Amino acid sequence: MESDRSSRRINTWAEELEVHSRSIYITNVNYGATIHDLKKHFQHCGSIVRVTIPRIQRTGRSRGIAYIEFEKKSAMNFRFGAA
Predict the structure, then answer these.
(1) How far apart are CA 45 and CA 56, in angstroms?
(2) C-alpha atoms less than 13 angstroms from C-alpha of 64 in its C-beta half-sphere
(3) For residue range 56-83, what is the model confidence (pLDDT) as tens digits?
(4) How far is CA 42 from the centre of its chain?
(5) Is residue 22 within 8 Å of residue 73, measured between CB atoms?
(6) What are the domain boundaries of the chain?
(7) In angstroms, what is the C-alpha Rg of the chain?
(8) 20 to 30 Å CA-CA from 48: which of 2, 26, 36, 56?
(9) Taking the model in full, what pTM does it have?
(10) Using an 8 Å Cβ cutoff, are 31 and 62 in contact?
């Protein structure tokens, strides 16, 4: 898995839920897309904490999905029109 941040521990269930509440899952990501590409595309939404692009272990090829964790939940409201 390619990530722009060293792995960090989430100590409690509440912390995990909080991180998920300000993260998005993206499908149909171009196989050639990089972390830099995704950060550039979503930077106008707000401060990005982490971008992760899962890869096929055997080949290193992107799985065509990505996860983006924002610093604040409000970043997702701007981009996706959530209430």
Answers:
(1) 29
(2) 2
(3) 999 999 999 999 999 988 876 654 555 4
(4) 10
(5) yes
(6) 24-70
(7) 13
(8) 56
(9) 0.74
(10) yes
